[in-house]
Q: What sequence folds into this?
């Protein structure tokens, strides 16, 4: 697919018209890239079949800049929704894909994004089955926004619910936090360390699947701390379960340069967005085995238990700090890093 | 739900943070409005079960202005996707709902839109089961964009496919065309007749269901001529089936004032967007019965047969004009009415 041969350099309003230009864009780029029997129906929608319950999750991606260290908005839009479906205890199968493009987007940028979507979809084992393209005038959007909605078959062994969480359950995280947010932030701020921090965007669905195969309903929750970071997700869980959560600061996996970037910018890594990170809350008797399995997967090499569920300080997250004190971890209130995903 | 009691007048970046402000917005407006067991899980996604094949369709709505004669972007986002699912021969059941809001949107406008979404969902018999809210800075969006993805159970009698279309099949349309596009256009242009033309946005899923109950696989296609209008949809079908389509200009249902508005603005109604209009292509022996059933439904009072499938001029749509000539109807090329849906 060569941008030069397409006959147009930029996306313009005609590409959102529903007429020949739309069809041209779809035929030359979208259908060509994602070709599969579902999409090739070229109907308003697609027909699929599931044998079990279905997990559905939707997200719009408005990240700025659209290309960043470690990824771009396209693969983020796939990985983000694939992971959300996986967090429901499901095996992601299909995605819908909807673009809102600002008039004037370079066609080679669009193609680069579309190819990343295809690569990320292949890596996650999902197919793009239906979509939509709208174009808005210059100054009424910001290059490109992408909505993906994901569909997955619930794993037969899964019983994921905050209702199952008990006092003593362990909280396990699969790797270094705050990388995505700090990659974007340092790029925006033009900091020197920008070249070394990369977004952690990736799919974790296969690792989740392996965990469910092995441990079934002894796994009580999966959750990915994206916007709002680890602090916000843990606070939400503490409120939902009406129990306490205790975490240990010195266990929280944080790379040195990410910690340094946070310090320079005055940000608390607990509130910084992640993309390839997830937590799982599991029965204490399987915690060691869960960690071992996760450490043997490249998406979980740095897995660690960061804390557990307690029957004190209900609805609150308390962190034992590295220097021996205790601190209540509140959820993020306003906006720390706008348009981080 | 009183905008004054919420504690904020506008949507701001903090409402897209994933932290307390996001949760506050969700709790006070979204969960309160759409409360149902799926959404109340407040997870990243929802779990549903279908007994049959599932039709899935996605659309982003970027219409401007967001409030227009006959509706607003909220109900449009529900009806548009409900109808796309219905066009697949399915019974719409669930929707996902994702907002991209421009910072500064008035909260009372947001609430009005959310309430319209709820009303439209209730009228269509669908539930909002999962969602997402993102906020972009002023000047990086345009008030509000909405993505809906719809899920429906394929009707057991349905066999909807262009492959089933035969020479002699009749093309039936459920009512007046070009109303949605001309309502928006005349409002944008500030024309005097603006007050009398209303968008035809509505759900047609129950009428589609009745047709499938009654006529099953003798119905070969449903399609809704939204962007690009009737001309673009018929042209696409002619290409897909590799047969000809003939339509009669004097049969095309067009209100006088809409025709007049089109003339003033130099627009061809065949290319103007519709929202509550659909065409169905059916076996000729059931055409009269289909029309009778449709005319007895308030969504099809003005149903008429506008033409048929022919074995001449393959891949083309030919219109017998009112004054006796013939005209080839080509699909829309560029952009006639940007941001019409």
A:
């Amino acid at each position: 697919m060569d941008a030069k041969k397409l006959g147009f350099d930029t996306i313009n309003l005609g590409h959102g018209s529903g007429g020949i230009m739309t069809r041209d864009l779809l035929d030359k780029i979208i259908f060509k890239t994602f070709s599969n029997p579902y999409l090739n129906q070229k109907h308003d929608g697609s027909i699929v079949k599931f044998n079990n319950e279905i997990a559905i999750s939707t997200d719009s991606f408005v990240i700025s800049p659209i290309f960043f260290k470690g990824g771009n908005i396209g693969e983020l839009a796939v990985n983000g929704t694939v992971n959300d479906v996986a967090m429901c205890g499901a095996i992601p199968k299909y995605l819908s894909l909807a673009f809102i493009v600002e008039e004037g987007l370079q066609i080679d940028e669009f193609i680069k994004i579309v190819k990343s979507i295809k690569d990320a979809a292949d890596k996650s084992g999902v197919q793009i089955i239906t979509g939509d393209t709208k174009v808005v005038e210059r100054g009424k959007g910001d290059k490109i926004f992408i909505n993906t909605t994901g569909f997955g078959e619930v794993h037969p062994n899964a019983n994921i619910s905050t209702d199952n969480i008990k006092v003593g359950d362990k909280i396990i995280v699969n790797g270094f936090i705050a990388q995505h947010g700090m990659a974007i932030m340092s790029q925006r701020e033009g900091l020197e360390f920008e070249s070394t921090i990369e977004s952690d965007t990736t799919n974790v669905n296969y690792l989740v699947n392996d965990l469910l195969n092995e441990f079934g309903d002894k796994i009580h929750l999966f959750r990915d701390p994206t916007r709002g970071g680890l602090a916000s997700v843990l606070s939400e869980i503490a409120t939902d379960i009406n129990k306490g959560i205790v975490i240990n600061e010195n266990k929280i996996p944080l790379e040195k340069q990410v910690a340094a970037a946070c310090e320079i910018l005055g940000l608390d890594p607990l509130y910084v967005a992640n993309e390839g990170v997830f937590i799982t809350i599991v029965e204490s008797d399987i915690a060691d085995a869960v960690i071992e399995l996760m450490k043997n997967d490249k998406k979980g090499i740095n897995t660690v238990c960061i804390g557990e569920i307690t029957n004190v300080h209900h609805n609150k997250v308390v962190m034992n700090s590295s220097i021996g004190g205790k601190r209540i971890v509140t959820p993020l209130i306003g906006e720390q890093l706008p348009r981080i995903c």
